From TrEMBL:
Catalytic reaction list: 8-oxo-GTP + H2O = 8-oxo-GMP + diphosphate + H(+); 8-oxo-dGTP + H2O = 8-oxo-dGMP + diphosphate + H(+)
Pfam families: NUDIX
Membership in a protein family: Belongs to the Nudix hydrolase family.
Descriptive protein name: 8-oxo-dGTP diphosphatase
PANTHER family the record matches: 8-OXO-DGTP DIPHOSPHATASE, NUDIX HYDROLASE FAMILY PROTEIN
Cofactor(s) listed in the protein's UniProt record: Mg(2+)
Species per Swiss-Prot/TrEMBL record: Variovorax ureilyticus
EC number: 3.6.1.55
Top enzyme class: hydrolase
Nudix hydrolase domain: residues covered: 5-131
UniProt KW keywords: DNA damage, DNA repair, DNA replication, Hydrolase, Magnesium, Metal-binding, Mutator protein
Amino acid sequence: MTAPRKHTEVAVGILVRGDDALLLSTRPEGKPYAGYWEFPGGKIEAGETVEQALRRELHEELGITIAGADVWKVTEHDYPHALVRLHWCKVTDWSGDFEMREGQSMCWQQLPLDVSPVLPGALPVLAWLAEERGLPNAVVTPAA
Ligand SMILES: Nc1nc2c([nH]c(=O)n2[C@@H]2O[C@H](COP(=O)(O)OP(=O)(O)OP(=O)(O)O)[C@@H](O)[C@H]2O)c(=O)[nH]1
């Protein structure tokens, strides 16, 4: 019997602008799935809450400071490189100007997205966001 894989806990931010647009960014070079579109976030470090980890990651990656973040959904995805547990937070309040500190690209997107490919682990959340907006599931761009 093989030991169960340990989850990597990840905090992810769904930044929603006043016009309902969502912020997506590309994964930096050197990481698995480099160039894929994702929601900004990263691994939760020992002793951090989801909110603390997200505040740190969004500051490190994007240069912004978020006010608060509540977990909206929790999903899991089994990648060859890691079994991840994603803690998804909607964020509507932040301060600071966006700076791509890791050389990523960013864009504000309405649904359906017009960027691809998207990280497979983000697809369930895109489907829920579409459902919330009364859009059919089929509008969510699958990973290429
Ligand atoms: N940020 C982010 N990560 C996601 C999303 N969907 C998804 O499956 N993940 C997975 O969650 C994990 C996040 O890890 P990461 O590598 O981005 O985190 P990090 O910046 O702390 O990494 P590092 O410290 O190794 O540089 C990756 O395995 C990634 O594939 C998403 O939409 N956004």
